[in-house]
Design goal:
The complex is a heterodimer. Chain A is mostly helical. Chain A is built from 19 helices and 4 strands. Chain A is 50% helix and 2% strand. In chain A, β3 and β4 form a beta hairpin. Chain B has 2 domains: 28 residues, no CATH class; 123 residues, Orthogonal Bundle (Cytochrome Bc1 Complex, Chain D, domain 2), CATH 1.10.760.10. The chains are: A mainly alpha, B mainly alpha.
Chain lengths: 425, 214
């Protein structure tokens, strides 16, 4: 009896123990992640070397079980005394790990447990987003037209042959029929057709001179706006801050890129493909940026300036290709449209956040500008509520018209937005 | 007779063929009147004639003009605050705690503007509420993002915060090129409103300053 009791007791005890262990494990797993993010992730990644070594598999590397506690509490002291610590420092110097004396043993356990169980997020098989290739109807129509033309031609020939036969039967005598390429009707029709076609193409070509819609140059670095502005939700004005302050939207200088890319060394997002189907190696593109910036990702420092030209050695400007080119005889100011007009970037630049490679979305022709100026309403100052842009309070007549319900809103055109001299001077 | 009829036809066909063969979304295409399309004055980002200009400081004083788009030394943009002189090292970082925020109080309009700037430049990592939950931080792309609502940052001096924005800290880069000194101080004020303790003290100040200003 007592033997059974002993077994039951030990069974219950072990059950309790297991339960306790598993719950505490849960708690630790959660804490571990948060603790790791808060304290370690600045310099360590679980699975990759970063500023400090990759932490996974730490247990097999440390000499004794409590080594890790001592190390975290005071790394500098350990480097002075401990052999393994010395070895580590030799590899990672001059960086010494920050001491974390405030971390308790349980917390360190939780962190190390999180690190060991860490699995990098794997991307599920991307949903089959194979969009239907847009069928170009013009080719189909062209073939159809050609077929119809051939049919018409054959029918005409048949017609003339039949007439010849009937003429012979009835004994009517006609001259030898001219072949079709000498037939004046055919020739005239052909010339007229070519004339119309040539005229159409010439006029369209002339209008298209200097317009670059869909222009999509290849850039020195495969920079994807889709990844930056779309996936990572970086505000347009983070990089193109000039758009709110000046005429130019401004191309960010390399140091703005480095604000994030000091930490982001590799691209691990969805695969990107070029137009010809070849894959873009995002990590290699980031390496290109480092080369332009004169940044050494190994030491996490800019190259020294040995040739004394004021910039790190090897650093050079990135020669981005300008896509949106307005001719010199047109004045355009970004801040006027962004800050005063409160326009979205996308109005003129299209869905930039979905473009891996940027192309010119808008026509940027005069008709296109004027059209928008005719339709867009200005943020007209409302005297009663005091809302709107105060600049427009000077338009006395429009205020009266609105008061008398002759007008309900004021467009850019009404305040002179289509005057020649607004943009051409 | 035959030749004269065919000649225009051939020419027109050739023109059509050439015009339609110019695909080219990779090339900017052609322009008419280049002297009206290209600026004769120096435009932003335009390439300078390397025979006349040099960006190399070592060539300074030679027969080329040295120009690197930087403001002349010792000049300040109109309306801009005086330069921040503390160096970017550990001593400078320590001393920065003694630097006072030149903006005593901030009015509601400026605070909204500071919030807008914060959301553009800082929230991408620090989050709109400053709790280190911006898109780049939560996705784990940038590690060690400071949670500005923690006591460590509530206790941090304005000057130290300004110092960190100016020079960068750890994984954070310098924002001196993106934000003017005044904007940086404004953002420091804004960060205080995100912090739990400071929220109570800033709000009345903002109300006061708006009342005084016309």
């Amino acid at each position: 009896m007592s033997r059974y009791r002993k077994i039951i007791n030990s069974f219950i005890a072990s059950l309790l123990f297991v339960a306790l262990l598993s719950t505490s494990n849960n708690v630790f797993a959660q804490d571990g992640k948060a603790l790791f993010q808060a304290n370690c992730s600045n310099c360590h990644k679980p699975d990759k070397d970063y500023t400090g070594p990759a932490l996974q598999g730490w247990a097999s590397r440390v000499p004794s079980a409590d080594w890790i506690y001592k190390w975290v509490a005071n790394p500098s002291a350990m480097i002075a005394t401990d052999a393994h610590a010395k070895e580590l420092f030799a590899k990672w110097k001059p960086t010494v790990m920050t001491a974390f004396p405030q971390l308790k043993k349980e917390e360190i356990d939780a962190i190390m447990k999180y690190v060991d169980t860490y699995v990098p997020e794997t991307k599920g098989p991307a949903g089959s987003t194979s969009t239907e290739p847009e069928t170009d109807n013009s080719l189909l129509f062209g073939i159809l037209t050609l077929v119809l033309a051939v049919v018409a031609f054959i029918l005409l020939q048949v017609n003339s042959n039949l007439r010849k036969l009937s003429d012979e039967k009835e004994g009517v005598l006609r001259g030898e029929p001219v072949p079709f390429y000498r037939n004046k009707t055919y020739l005239m029709a052909g010339i007229l057709l070519l004339f119309a076609l040539g005229g159409y193409v010439t006029i369209n070509g002339a209008i298209g001179l200097g317009r670059q819609k869909n222009y999509q140059p290849e850039q020195p670095i495969y920079y994807s706006h889709k990844v930056h502005a779309g996936v990572n939700q970086i505000s347009c004005l983070y990089c193109h801050g000039g758009a709110q302050d000046s005429k130019q939207a401004s191309i960010p200088s390399v140091n703005v890129c480095m604000n994030c890319h000091m930490a982001i060394k590799e691209y691990a997002g969805d695969p990107i493909t070029r137009e010809d189907g070849s894959a873009v190696n995002g990590t290699a593109e980031i390496q290109k940026l480092y080369s332009y910036a004169g940044w050494n990702p190994e030491t996490k420092q800019y190259n020294p300036d040995n040739n004394k030209d004021g910039i790190p050695d090897g650093a050079r400007p990135i020669e981005w290709v300008k896509i949106h080119n307005l001719p010199d005889h047109v004045y355009f100011n970004h801040s006027q449209h962004i800050k005063v007009g409160k326009q979205q970037c996308q109005t003129c630049h299209g869905n930039i956040q979905e473009m891996p490679e940027v192309y010119q979305f808008a026509e940027l022709s005069m008709g296109w500008c004027i059209n928008c100026h005719r339709e867009t309403k200005v943020d007209f100052f409302n005297k009663e509520t005091g809302e709107g842009n105060k600049f427009y309070s000077i338009y006395e007549k429009f205020h009266n018209d609105i008061k008398n319900h002759k007008l309900d809103s004021v467009t850019v055109e009404k305040i002179g937005g289509t005057e020649c001299q607004k943009c051409h001077y | 007779m035959k030749r004269t009829t065919f000649l225009p036809a051939i020419i027109i066909t050739a023109v059509v063929a050439i015009a339609s063969s110019c695909d080219g979304h990779r090339s900017p295409g052609k322009i008419y009147m280049p002297d009206m399309a290209y600026s004769r004055a120096y435009e932003s980002y335009a390439q300078h004639d390397s025979m006349k200009f040099t960006m190399d400081m070592n060539d300074k004083g030679g027969n080329k003009i040295f120009y690197n788009s930087m403001p002349a030394a010792g000049t300040i943009k109109r309306g801009e605050f005086f330069p921040y002189t503390l160096p970017n090292d550990s001593t400078g970082y320590k001393m920065s705690a003694t630097v006072k925020n030149p903006l005593d109080s901030i009015n509601a309009k400026d605070l909204t503007e500071a919030g807008r700037l914060f959301n553009i430049n800082c929230a991408i990592c620090h989050g709109e509420k400053g709790a280190a939950n911006g898109p780049l931080a939560t996705s784990g792309k940038i590690g060690g993002v400071a949670n500005l609502t923690l006591p460590a940052y509530t206790a941090m001096a304005d000057g130290t915060m300004f110092h960190s924005i100016t020079y960068g800290k750890n994984n954070m880069g310098s924002y001196a090129s993106q934000l003017t000194r005044e904007q940086r101080w404004m953002i420091v004020k804004y960060v205080r409103t995100l912090q739990p303790k400071a929220a109570g003290t800033t709000a009345p100040a903002a109300a006061d300053s708006t009342a005084k200003k016309p």
